[in-house]
Amino acid sequence: MGKGVLNPARPSFLRVGGVLHCGAHSLDDLAERHGTPLYVYDADRALERFRTLREAFAPAAGAPSPALTDTPLHAPRRLLVAYSVKANPNLALLRLFARAGAGADIVSGGELYCALHAGFPPGRIVFAGVGKTTGEMRDGLRSGIRAFHVESAQELEALARVAAELGREAPVAIRVNPDVQSPTHEFTRTGHAAAKFGVPPDEAFELYRRVAEHGNLRAAGVDVHIGSQLREGGPFLRALDVMLEVAGRVRRELGIALTYADLGGGFGIQDAEAGELDVHALGRDVTARLQGRGMELIIEPGRFLVGDAGALVTRVLYLKRSGPKTFVVTDAGMTELIRPSHYGGVHEVSPVNENGQGDAEVVDVVGPVCEQGDFLARDRLLPVPSPGALLCVHQAGAYGFTMASNYNSRPRPAEVLVHGGRATLVRRRERYSDLVRGQFP
Ligand code: LLP
After folding, report:
1. What is the Cα Rg of the chain in Å?
2. Cα separation, 243 vs 223, whole angstroms
3. Which residues contact 79 (CB under 8 A, 6 or more apart)?
4. Residue located nearest, by CA, to atom 22 of ligand 1
5. Which of 6, 122, 299, 303 has its CA at a distance of 20 to 30 angstroms from the CA of residue 229?
6. Which runs of consecutive H residues, i.e. helices, occur in 18-168?
7. Cα of 266 to ligand 1 centre, how many Å?
8. Ligand 1 binding pocket, CB closer than 6 Å
9. 361 pairs with which residues across the strands?
10. What's the CA-to-centroid distance between 265 and ligand 1, angstroms?
11. Are strands 260-262 and 217-223 parallel, antiparallel or unpaired?
């Protein structure tokens, strides 16, 4: 696997006097005030990452070549950074990105609801997913979203029926499966032929033909998404080439100029194992390939925007030695952050306060959940913490809280957003009463 580049920008959660801080707030204080486990997000960092991507993928400077300026097809290209809501749908973060001018990449009616609630203009929302229900299609059509990213022939027919029923025209981009291998965990690899996502290029072309024939469908763009936590640019470029070939064929044979190319998300970040994707290099290559085509570029980053802007703060309950192992038992586990056990995610773990630490030892940091697969880090060299000490699990802003569960009847944690010097509770900790809400025994 490519090792990526070292994260060049200011990381969140710096130490001041040996204690980790988010902005001006020490994680000690935040944990004291709001309890643990606790998610803490750095809004300034998230916005900085948004600007980084905007710069990296900005349309190439200068006007398009004069010979190409006579048709709208060759109009200067634009960029839409559509935040992938699934990475972290906290409303405060959604609002932050909506205000910054981002769009939203959604995959469910629930995400549509949240995105609209947070103020994303419908024209900046794109809707992906292999299993959209007709109800979700109806909601998307009624709210006037930018496009549906269609993933199968049957889905396209269902969308056409719903659009006809409502007397509307559904904007469509076909999600192409480019059959590229992306070096990442098998569960987050989506661009190879055996994945459930997208359709092969030839079938994609046939679906555009169907779109062209149907009075209630309109071809808007073309789409790929090849996986998540990718650190090499190559697979993105191969996918882009396949997608642009489809777009070229649609233009030549059907006379339709698709207005955008959506490269999906998946831009990898630095963790305890490796560095991050070089988004500037990728941006240059992508931009060069789009030059003169007059297509808008859409990207759908999730993790890149919020991953390292978030941390999970957890308190050590006990130390336990068993056979060859030393276990640090914390009050957070797979219920709060499932990535280590589900995807082999390797999040950095560090003491919140590094003053007065004991000797370092190789330990497993494990949660209280009754599963042997419940861990936050394994075989990690850490100063052995005392019970009561706080640990910070880094890079937890993406696919952390959003994948949290109530397994073992554990209330889900609180979330705090630090923005411009203020720390705000943006989701309260669940209570036991939340665990029985909605049940009718
Ligand atoms: N666009 C589409 C269509 C997607 O399915 C995804 C993620 C994204 C964009 C954003 O990908 P990102 O930029 O965040 O990598 N739970 C897994 C990751 C699953 C990603 C699912 N799709 C994890 O924790 O690693």
Report:
1. 23
2. 7
3. 54, 57, 58, 59, 296, 297, 298, 299
4. 228
5. 122
6. 27-34, 43-56, 91-100, 109-117, 134-143, 153-166
7. 6
8. 84, 86-87, 105, 128, 188, 225, 228-229, 264-267, 300-304, 339, 343, 398-399
9. 382
10. 7
11. parallel
- Tokens 């990452």 locate to 49
- Domain(s) of CATH 3.20.20.10: residues in the chain: 43-306
Active-site residue list: 370
Band (184; pLDDT cuts 50, 70, 90): confident
| Calpha distance 40→396 (Å, rounded) | 9
Spatial separation of the C-alpha atoms in residues 393 and 332, rounded to whole Å: 10
Do residues 102 and 81 make contact, with C-beta atoms less than 8 angstroms apart?
A: yes
Neighbours of 420 (CB within 10 A): 8
75 to each of 31, 89, 220, 294, how far by Cα in Å? 52, 34, 16, 5
Tell me where in the chain the CATH 2.40.37.10 domain(s) lie.
13-42+307-435
Q: Right CATH number for 43-306 from 3.40.50.300, 3.20.20.10, 3.40.50.150, 3.90.170.10?
A: 3.20.20.10
CA of 105 to the centre of ligand 1 (A): 10
CB atoms within 10 A of CB 203: 16
* Residues 78-106 pLDDT 10s: 999 999 999 999 999 999 999 999 999 99
- Compute the distance between CA of residue 34 and CA of residue 51 in angstroms, rounded to an integer: 30
Q: pLDDT tens digit string along 290-344?
A: 999 999 999 999 999 999 999 999 999 999 999 999 999 999 999 999 999 999 9
Reference 171, options 121, 209, 117, 218; nearest CA is: 218
Which CATH architecture is the domain 13-42+307-435 placed in?
Beta Barrel (2.40)
- pTM, rounded to two decimals: 0.95
Q: What are the C-alpha distances in Å from 383 to residues 340, 359, 365, 366?
A: 20, 5, 12, 15
